[in-house]
Amino acid sequence: MIASSSISRILRKVPRENAFYFFTSIGNYTGENAASLEEFVRKVKEVDAKSLEFHLYRGDFEKWVDETLEDKELAEKIRSLKSLSPSGNSLQNQLYLIVSRRYEKLKGEFSS
Amino acid sequence: MKIKNQVIVLDNLDWKILQILQKNAKQTYTEIGRLLSVAHSTIYDRIRMMEKQGIIKKYTVVVDLEKIGVKHVTAIMTVFTNPQESEKVAKKLSESKEVLEVSASLSENLSIIAKVVAEDQNRLHLFIAQSVAPLPGVLKVRTSIITREYKDERFSIEKWKMESKY
């Protein structure tokens, strides 16, 4: 059970400068960004899978989730996904499953 | 030099001085005067006037970074923006030490084209991710890393003068 203060911290909206910006390669910004876990879940489903591949293997997702959202558990799950080397739609589906489940769990615990 | 309808009109001597300075800005007033058969005091006055009017913006040095072993990555970045925010984005980019040149373009939507330099690809990406993408009004960014430069020259007064009606 996570403390409600921790949950609200993970679910908060972060300032624009701390949002996650989706790129497809070095310097190529897609125009999509996420400033909260809720937005991140949505964007993972919407952005091009190439962008997810680019960030997953650079370790950008786990870094942002760990350092900005401060959700170590989710960061660890994303790190584990990386070790399975998924790509394309498979990566998109698996990542979406991980982040959406985490979001629903936290939201559920926070409301109860 | 004359000012006609708020436009500065240079005479032949001004143009020649600019041509000489563009080839080598280190030349003295005396050397330039000798080349043009004009007194060095005249050259001094003309140059001071062109500096004062902002025609001569600055004197600078072009360093060959490869020769001194400075590792760097240069890229051309196209920043697509909201029309309302474009001016602010361009000004903000101009303030960054990583950005060498900033221009506006109307070729494809409203975009800003900037030349960027960083120590390596990772730092280039970090700069764009942390300092460009978060700027209000930035819609997307396309970046091309320059792998080899075949020509890097500024506008040539001499060539332009030869081809123009002046």
Q: How many E-type strands of chain B?
A: 6
The DSSP helix count of chain B reads 6
Largest interface: A-B, 12 and 20 residues
Write out the strand line-up for the largest beta sheet of chain A, numbering strands in chain order: 1-2
Explain briefly what this protein structure is.
Chain A is mainly α and 112 residues long. Chain A has helices at residues 4-11, 37-46, 49-58, 60-69, 72-83, 88-111, and strands at 20-25, 28-34.
Can you lay out the helices and strands and say which pair or pack?
The complex is a heterodimer of chains A (112) and B (166).
Chain A: H1 4-11, E1 20-25, E2 28-34, H2 37-46, H3 49-58, H4 60-69, H5 72-83, H6 88-111
Antiparallel strand pairs in A: 1-2
Helix pairs in contact in A: 1-6, 2-6, 3-6, 4-5, 5-6
Chain B: E1 2-4, E2 7-9, H1 12-23, H2 29-36, H3 40-52, E3 73-81, H4 86-95, E4 99-105, E5 111-118, H5 121-132, E6 138-146, H6 157-163
Antiparallel strand pairs in B: 1-2, 3-5, 3-6, 4-5
Helix pairs in contact in B: 2-3
Description:
The complex is a heterodimer of chains A (112) and B (166). By secondary structure, chain A is mainly α. Chain A has helices at 4-11, 37-46, 49-58, 60-69, 72-83, 88-111; strands at 20-25, 28-34. Chain A starts with a helix and ends with a helix. The model of chain A has no long low-confidence stretch (mean pLDDT 95). In chain B, the strands form two sheets. A four-stranded antiparallel β-sheet of chain B has the order 4-5-3-6. Chain B has a two-stranded antiparallel ribbon with strand order 1-2. Chain B is built from six helices and six strands, in the order ββαααβαββαβα. In chain B, 37% of the residues lie in helices and 23% in strands.
